[in-house]
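Hey, can you fold this one?
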Amino acid sequence: MKPSEYIKKGWCQNSFAALADGTATHTRDPKASAWCAVAAIMVSVMFTRPHAEWVGKSFAEVQNSIINSLCEHLKLTALSPLQWNDAPERTQEEVVAALEAIGY
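Sure. Predicted structure:
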């Protein structure tokens, strides 16, 4: 699944992932039902079949490449993608749109 598809299933703020009741959990928890933008990228890279452009690259290289693309798209300079995701005014729809805009 693409990161945007994880976010469509469920989105959270102020933690990498959350259970259905909103309790924070770790990114790879099989019971997780919501993810922040960065965690959605992480689980997507971990559990998705590699794209052609990923061949020969490490998990960290692929993850960082996607995060860098997101930062460039959002023109983030002072904010990290986590801070952007966790901004009180941020919406799930904005996160989905940003990920889809970079092809993820």
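The two ends are 9 Å apart (CA to CA). Let me know if you want another pass with a different chain boundary.
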